[in-house]
Design goal:
- This protein has about 550 residues and is of the alpha+beta class.
- Helices cover about 40% and strands about 30% of the residues.
- It contains 12 helices and 18 strands.
- The strands form 4 sheets. A 12-stranded antiparallel barrel has the order 7-8-9-10-11-12-13-14-15-16-17-18.
- The chain is globular.
Length: about 550
């Protein structure tokens, strides 16, 4: 049997983790836009999306637990760990989460259609990761578009265990590229939904149509997909898909026939800050309680999804309490400030010369552990140095151009030498900042070697007060092997210092920047995910020239 090509699994390191996270982020923004377009309360909508996400992941994991494992879980009082996921479980879990949170927040929203496009687009992105990562593949076949997987891949190991190939074989047998089938069909679903969305009369019908098409496709795809136990001629998952497809199809036809006009898509009385706080605290508790059951990738993904709800709720409750209890205190402070300012004359120091430029030298080291996706625990150590030039254009505006170099080792069953160089450019204005750069060399991420990677950074908010930021490949001495992605918030401190905290693929992190005397600053970095995922780092920065 011949294959079209062998899947290049080492082309992009950690492909499954990257595309899994990217699929969630893209889906998050699609659903966020749908809620914004409908003028729904933003903070409550953040919370609804987070509840849907965490319950969808819970449902997808519960859906693959067998009856024997359920009996063992009830006996031992703990759920079995699993990296497998069930589409049916994810859909049912997400619907259950939305059902509960809408009633907790007392919102009467018809939200299902907001997920109708996010789900197939997220599936498209996720299946790219599955294809490159070697999971969710098909049965052996001789069709001309079949693909093979290299040695040590999941398909190769299964074929080797079944005795279908010899240990000397360099690739697996040709298999159906079921991930590509799903990508193509998901694209077709998006086009069909775009055509039909104005022809359907009821809210929720677009989502129902997606369920019908996708379940119908997956039912037939399972005939050529590897794995799954069979009962009465069909796999267990096929019986579930068939039942869900027919049930939703009947429900869709009934709904479309009983009403000819779309009702208003939502009703809500008021966005209640106290209920939002309760819902957000519940999210954090779910994540904390399940921290040892969720995989590190799932934990990081959920933390990223929960972060906007947490930040939004914090800001909302602070403003609410300020308006309710501190109004007279604010008026008093303003009046005292006016009296104080008017009573002082010529007390301000002369403005400093803000147009300065200077060079800086940085030294940094980090060590830690992380768990490879579907792999062993790694420990690593990396050290680096860098030089940069900073130009201050005004009190708040500046840019920085620099280059960093780093070296270290990543150890699991063997040892991998890390050696990289990182040129970058960073531009900061008062309310927004952005950066761009790249990593080049012998890099290592999620158990796989890579040679290049993009660096990018975005900050929104005044950096001397409060801001939100996202950083990809922007960590010193290096983002390899971790942390690659950081999402968080920050607070400005005195003398251009700052305190950053958030979530990364190394866990929750805390990263203060503390200026000392004579142009010296220190920046410790602490990240913790679980007992096998943590990082400790320290950076020293020396400013040269113009102070």
């Amino acid at each position: 049997m011949n294959s079209l090509f062998t899947v290049p699994m080492n082309y992009l390191g950690g492909s499954y983790a990257i595309f899994y996270l990217f699929a969630f982020i893209v889906g998050f923004f699609i659903v966020l836009y749908e809620g914004y377009r409908r003028k729904w309360p933003l903070v409550s909508w953040f919370i609804v999306m987070a509840w849907c996400s965490i319950w969808a992941i819970i449902g997808s994991k519960l859906g693959v637990i067998s009856i024997e494992e359920w009996n063992a879980a009830l006996h031992h009082g703990s759920l079995p760990a699993t990296v497998e996921k069930s589409f049916l479980g994810g859909i049912l879990g997400g619907l259950l989460g939305v059902f509960f949170i809408l009633r907790l927040l007392k919102l009467r929203l018809s939200v299902s259609d907001t997920f109708a496009f996010a789900l197939p687009i997220g599936l498209i992105i996720g299946r790219i990761g599955c294809f490159l990562g070697g999971c969710c593949f098909g049965t052996t076949t001789s069709v001309p578009w079949a693909v093979t997987y290299p040695a040590n891949s999941h398909a190769y190991n299964i074929h080797l265990a079944k005795g279908l190939i010899d240990p000397s074989a360099s690739t697996s047998l040709p298999v159906h590229p079921t991930q590509l089938y799903e990508i193509v069909f998901s694209l077709m679903i998006v086009l069909i939904l775009l055509i039909c969305r104005k022809r359907l009369k009821r809210e929720g019908s677009i989502f129902c149509l997606f369920i019908v098409f996708y379940c119908g496709f997956r039912f037939f795809e399972e005939f050529v997909r590897e794995g799954g136990s069979v009962v009465l001629g069909l796999k267990h998952v096929q019986w579930g898909l068939l039942l869900l497809c027919l049930s939703v199809l009947i429900f869709l036809i009934w709904r479309e026939r009983i009403q000819n006009v779309k009702p208003k898509s939502f009703e809500f009385t008021q966005d209640n800050p106290y209920r939002n706080v309760i819902a957000t605290i519940s999210l954090v508790l779910f994540l904390f309680i399940g921290r040892n059951w969720f995989t590190p990738l799932e934990t990081n993904t959920l933390a990223i999804i929960i972060l906007p709800a947490f930040v939004g709720t914090s800001i909302q409750i602070t403003r609410y309490l300020s308006r309710k209890y501190l109004r007279w205190a604010e008026i008093t402070i303003i009046l005292v400030s006016i009296v104080f300012i008017s009573s002082g004359t010529d007390t301000q120091a002369p403005p400093e010369n803000t147009k300065t430029g200077f060079f800086s030298i940085s030294l940094s080291g980090m060590t830690g552990e992380y768990v490879e996706t579907c792999g062993p625990t790694h420990n690593y150590g990396v050290f680096g140095s860098g030089v940069s030039y900073t130009k201050k254009l005004s009190q708040y505006d500046k840019f920085e151009l620099g280059v960093r170099g780093y070296s270290g080792t990543d150890n699991n069953w063997g040892s991998y030498q890390i050696l990289g160089i990182n040129p970058y450019f960073q531009s900061d204005f008062h309310w927004i900042g952005f950066g761009i750069g790249g990593h080049f060399g012998d890099l290592y991420f999620d158990g796989e070697p890579i040679s290049t990677f993009l660096q990018a950074a975005l900050r929104i908010g005044p950096y001397d007060k409060f801001f939100i930021e996202a950083r990809l490949g922007d960590h010193f001495p290096g983002s390899f092997p971790a942390p690659l992605l950081k999402l968080g918030i920050g607070f400005g401190l005195k003398n251009e210092g700052s305190l950053r905290l958030g979530i990364s693929d190394a866990g929750f992190y805390l990263n203060p920047y503390i200026p000392l005397r004579k142009g010296i600053a220190i920046s410790p970095f602490i990240a913790y995910g679980d007992e096998e995922t943590y990082q400790l780092g320290l950076t020293l920065r020396f400013r040269l020239g113009n102070q």
